[in-house]
Amino acid sequence: MASVSAGDRFRGEEPEHTPRLWHVTLSVSGARAPLPEVRRALEQLAHDHPFLLTSRYADDHAEIRYWEEARDLHDAAAVALRLWGEHRQTAGLPPWEIVGLEVIDRATYHQRIAAGYGPAPATPVGVHPF
Known about the structure:
130 residues, alpha+beta, five-stranded mixed beta sheet, globular
């Protein structure tokens, strides 16, 4: 019988508290807003938070896609659910509500892309109309 020191793990095992990458898609919707204002607000959000890969928008809805580093899905989702509200004032975002959230791990994202499912990789990067 061998002793195991605290913090030891099996080969290939991920430590429980090691951050992982999560692909986040946040969908928001609400009353119509002028397109130039929506674009400017999303560009400001992307400038303030360069982790944002791409945003697509219309006058009454938008979709933001980005990678989040977090310990687990719960942490990544919690950050995503706060993103719009916490930056509404500083970026001048419309007073829309979150209507959809998808958080998937990196392996699942790449499996979907390889199989031809799901949205194409977030290119071109930036803020674009739907």
